[in-house]
Design a protein that fits this description.
This protein has two domains: 2-211, Chloramphenicol acetyltransferase-like domain (Chloramphenicol Acetyltransferase, 2-Layer Sandwich); 233-448, Chloramphenicol Acetyltransferase (2-Layer Sandwich). 29% of the residues lie in helices and 25% in strands. It is built from eleven helices and 19 strands. The protein has helices at residues 39-42, 64-81, 115-121, 180-197, 242-256, 268-286, 335-349, 355-367, 369-380, 435-441, 445-448, and strands at residues 2-7, 10-22, 34-36, 48-55, 89-90, 96-98, 104-111, 151-152, 155-162, 167-174, 210-211, 233-241, 295-302, 315-316, 320-327, 383-387, 405-408, 415-420, 426-434. The strands form five sheets. The protein has a seven-stranded mixed β-sheet with strand order 1-2-7-9-10-4-17. A six-stranded mixed β-sheet has the order 12-19-18-16-13-15, sandwiched between helices. It has a two-stranded antiparallel sheet with strand order 3-6. A hairpin with a 4-residue loop joins strand 9 (155-162) and strand 10 (167-174).
């Protein structure tokens, strides 16, 4: 497959040069051959989360072939620990993974541009060819009919070589088996194994994946769950330096001092969630003939460290809950309202004793089919915020040094992802909006003053 991108007056070629299947270095024990998906997993979106890390040229290897060979070997060892990732599950409505050791697709591609040129001149959508087989959120779902008896792989890898010797390592993980933390922990483990194979000794015990055991639960989920890629949506990056975020935090405290719920010491994520939501709702209202457009806000909260009985950070699965509430009028978009509501819900979730209690909550929601369908339809029109800036993404080192950029690809309707900047001095917010709304928000003076 050859992808052509017009940049800087020339055709940029991105070509698939090889395909392979990497299997675990050791067989999965018979008692682990079936991995049951939790209710968290079963209600997760049927989509692939795409993550990519860019690395400059390294002088460690004489050729890119040597680098790729080492990646394949270390991936094989990594899959012996992440054994469900090398299995197969139903393409539609999976309830378990058959840990069959069939392996993951490993694709190599070549881009005829230098890495710095690619990063400097490419638009966000130009990242798509870096990911394997169009496994980019919902994109793969649009390729023909999904047979309920068809199986698929939870994970695929693509390594992209640039003309300068730089490389982009990309992975797409099915959201049915894990969340962002699951994917990033996999990357960290794989990178550490790669460094270990180059002669460095690393104790991997503290980053070993932790797979929880679940009993089989079949739930009657609504059919045709919303596809959050429908419509003319685009994703753009907004970078906020910490100095500007500190100004925003001080502004929020000042704005709310006279309210019944003053916001003291807002976090970076809280401050930016309010700002982006305010600007996004304003842009939506402008495209709605200036009439305020009621919508809502949802924020994804990991439960790993937020339960009374916390889980290891390396726990694999969709271990999060969605905090959501409506913003029906302009008064509900005030900073004290939005940040106050987020804090109330965080406090309530932190009172959940353990995963069993959280699963019972999910089971009760699933048992009310009509209520779940109504909730799903409502949240489909909400802006969803997820914060992964606490994970040390820029510490993912395969032995070639730290990445110069990490990001998430693709388009998901009204999804906002916040990540750290490379040097840790700010937040890179990936914002996905309707094209016309994006044109408005990109010219919003309040937003631009903080970028």
């Amino acid at each position: 497959m050859i992808s052509k991108l017009l940049r800087c007056g020339r055709r940029q070629l991105h070509t698939i040069v090889s395909r392979d299947v990497i299997k675990p270095s050791s067989p999965t024990p018979s008692h682990l051959k079936t991995y049951n998906l939790s209710l968290f997993d079963q209600i997760a979106v049927n989509a692939y989360a795409p993550f990519v890390a860019f690395y400059p040229r390294s002088k460690i290897y004489q050729s890119s072939y040597d680098k790729t060979l080492e990646l394949k070997n270390s991936l094989s060892h990594t899959l012996s620990r992440y054994y469900p990732f090398a299995g197969r599950f139903a393409k539609v409505g999976p309830t378990y993974v058959d840990c069959s050791d069939e392996g993951v697709d490993f694709i190599e591609a070549y881009n005829d541009s230098p890495l710095t040129d690619f990063l400097q001149h490419s638009k966000y959508e130009d990242l798509d060819p870096l990911f394997p087989d169009d496994l980019i959120w919902y994109k793969s779902n649009h390729k023909g009919h999904n047979d309920e008896n068809e199986t698929t792989s939870p994970l695929s890898i693509q390594v992209n070589h640039f003309s300068c010797g730089g490389v982009a390592v990309a992975a797409s993980l099915s959201h049915k088996i894990g969340d962002a933390s699951s994917l990033l922990n996999f990357f960290k483990y794989w990178a550490t194994v790669t460094r270990s194979s180059s002669g460095e000794h690393h104790d991997l015990s503290h980053i070993n994946p932790h797979f929880l055991s679940y009993q089989t639960r079949n739930v009657n989920l609504p059919k045709n769950l919303p596809d959050r890629s429908q419509g003319d949506y685009v994703t753009r990056s907004f970078v906020f330096p910490n100095s500007k975020i500190n100004d925003l935090k001080a502004k929020i405290t000042s704005m709310t001092m006279e309210s019944e719920e003053p916001i003291m010491d807002p976090t970076r994520a809280e401050a930016l969630t309010w700002l982006i939501h305010k600007c996004a709702v304003a842009a939506a209202s402008k495209t709605n003939s200036g009439v305020f457009k009621p919508t809502g806000l949802g924020q994804i909260m990991s439960i790993r460290k937020n339960l009374v009985e916390p889980l290891p950070e390396t726990s694999i699965g969709n271990l999060y809950l969605l905090m959501e509430f409506p913003t029906r009028n302009e008064s509900e978009v005030a900073p004290n309202k939005i940040i106050g509501e987020l804090r109330k819900r965080k406090k309530a979730f932190r009172g959940i004793p353990n995963t069993e209690t959280a699963l019972r909550m999910v089971a009760e929601m699933c048992s009310d089919h009509s209520a779940m369908l109504e909730t799903t339809k409502r949240v489909d029109d909400y802006y969803i915020y997820t914060v992964i800036n606490r994970f040390p993404t820029y510490e993912i080192d395969f032995g070639w040094g730290k990445p110069i950029k990490v990001t998430v690809g693709g388009v998901v309707k009204k999804l906002i992802i916040m990540m750290d900047t490379p040097n840790g001095d700010g937040i890179d917010a990936l914002v996905c909006l309707e094209r016309e709304e994006m044109k408005i928000i990109q010219e919003d003076p309040e937003l631009l003053a903080l970028c």
